[in-house]
Structures are given as structure tokens and as C-alpha cells.
Amino acid sequence: MTTSRRLADRKVEKFEKNITKRGFVPETTAKKGKDYPVGPVLLGFFVFVVIGSSLFQIIRTATSGGMA
């Protein structure tokens, strides 16, 4: 058996081992879906700023007489 043939057989064994492992994901790496990327305080502040600025714009437009 030549060296290249032995290396080829070794690679085939390695790849066949990987094929049997395909699809098995451990529980720790899978995301649970319960965590938010931002905290509740930051989310509340963002909502406050967005809704507050839109209300402020509506009131300002109404008091200035429409489209100005």
C-alpha cells in the first residue's frame, strides 16, 4: 500500500466519523429564546422616547395650525 493510499483511507475514516455526528447539537449551544438582547430598562426608555417624541410632534403640529 502506498503512502497516498494510506492517507486517503485515513481521511475517509475521519469523514465517515463526522457524517455520523451530523445533526447532533448539544443542549448548551442551542438558544432558549427567553433572553432579550437588551434589558427591560433600556427597552422601556426607548419606547418612552419614541412615543414621547411622536406625541410631542403631534401636539406641535396641531398647535401650529397644520402643515406649516
How would you portray this structure in words?
It is a single chain. With about 70 residues, the protein is mainly α. Helix content is about 65%, strand content about 0%. The protein has helices at about 5-20, 40-65. It is rod-shaped, with a radius of gyration of 30 Å. The model has no long low-confidence stretch (mean pLDDT about 80).
Task: Provide a concise account of the structure shown.
This protein has 68 residues and is mostly helical. The protein contains two helices and no strands.
List keywords for this structure.
68 residues; rod-shaped
Blueprint (SSEs and pairs):
Blueprint lengths: L2 H19 L18 H24 L5
Average predicted confidence as pLDDT: 81
The best one-word shape is rod-shaped
Q: Into which percent range does the helicity of residues fall?
A: 55-70%
Rg calculated over all Cα atoms: 30 Å
Structural class: mainly alpha
Please report the number of helical segments. 2
Number of strands: 0
Q: Enumerate the spans where pLDDT stays under 50 for 5 or more consecutive residues.
A: none
Give the terminus-to-terminus CA distance.
Answer: 88 Å
Taken as a percent bin, the fraction of beta residues is: under 5%
Q: How would you sum up the major sheet? A: none
SSE series: HH
Transmembrane segments: 41-59
Main location: endoplasmic reticulum
Membrane topology: Single-pass membrane protein
Keywords: Endoplasmic reticulum, Membrane, Transmembrane, Transmembrane helix
